[in-house]
Design a protein that fits this description.
Blueprint (H helix, E strand, L loop, with lengths): L5 H16 L11 H22 L5 E3 L5 E4 L13
Antiparallel strand pairs: 1-2
Helix pairs in contact: 1-2
Length: 84
């Protein structure tokens, strides 16, 4: 199960931690820096490796609402897969 890997699990912790901190101070514009960095440096390369290693067309990670938050192909970002 891919979702059980440490790279995915820890990356999702960064995503949800950053989501809970966003808007903490409405006077400041906060970019979810930790998530973006983790996604760029760890999760996206991991997903791209899955695609090349196993011959998938693409690989994605979705949030609880069904929106793609990370993908091996950047064109898939923000796709709504909630009905899939």
């Amino acid at each position: 199960m891919v979702a059980g890997t440490r790279d995915v699990y820890e990356s999702l912790n960064y995503y949800y931690d950053d989501q809970s901190m966003a808007g903490w101070n409405s006077d400041e514009l906060r970019t979810p820096f930790l998530w973006e960095t983790r996604n760029k440096e760890v999760l996206t390369p991991f997903l791209q490796k899955l695609v090349s290693q196993y011959g998938f067309q693409f690989s994605t990670v979705i949030n609880r609402e069904g929106t793609v938050i990370s993908a091996s192909d950047s064109k898939r970002l923000n796709d709504n897969l909630s009905g899939q």
